[in-house]
Design brief:
about 120 residues; globular
C-alpha cells in the first residue's frame, strides 16, 4: 500500500488496456487492486465507476477479482456500493432462494480458490 494519491493511475491505465483487448478478468483485477491497495488514490472514483459498469455485464468475474484483491474482512467497507450491485446480479446457490450476499460470494470464491491451492 502507498500514500501516494496518484499511485492508482497505473491500475487505471492497466484496466483500460485490458478492456481494449477484451480481457475482462485483467480489467476487473486492476480495478479491484486499485480500490483495495490504493484507497486514497485520485482514480478511486473512476475505478469504482468502471468496476460497477463491468459488474453489470460480468458479475462473476468482478466478484472473483474483488475477492482475490481484498481480504474478506474488509470487503464490506471497501466495496459496499459494489456489493449491492453484485448481490442483485449473482445467482444464489439455492435455486429457489434469494440472491446471495457479497460475503457469501467472497466466501464461496475463497473456499474454491483455497481448494485449488491445496
Amino acid at each position: 500500500e502507498t500514500d501516494d494519491p496518484a499511485a492508482g493511475y497505473v491500475h487505471l491505465q492497466l484496466a483500460a488496456a485490458c478492456a481494449a483487448m477484451g480481457d475482462r478478468e485483467g480489467e476487473a483485477a486492476a480495478l479491484a487492486e486499485l480500490l483495495a491497495r490504493h484507497p486514497d488514490s485520485e482514480g478511486k472514483g473512476q475505478a469504482r465507476e468502471m468496476l460497477d459498469r463491468l459488474a453489470a455485464t460480468h458479475p462473476e468475474i468482478v466478484a472473483e477479482q474483488v475477492a482475490m484483491a481484498t481480504p474478506a474482512r474488509s470487503v464490506r467497507s471497501e466495496f459496499e456500493g459494489l456489493r449491492q450491485d453484485l448481490a442483485a446480479s449473482v445467482q444464489s446457490p439455492q435455486p429457489q432462494g434469494p440472491v446471495g450476499s457479497m460475503e457469501d460470494t467472497v466466501a464461496s470464491t475463497a473456499t474454491h480458490a483455497s481448494g485449488e491451492l491445496s
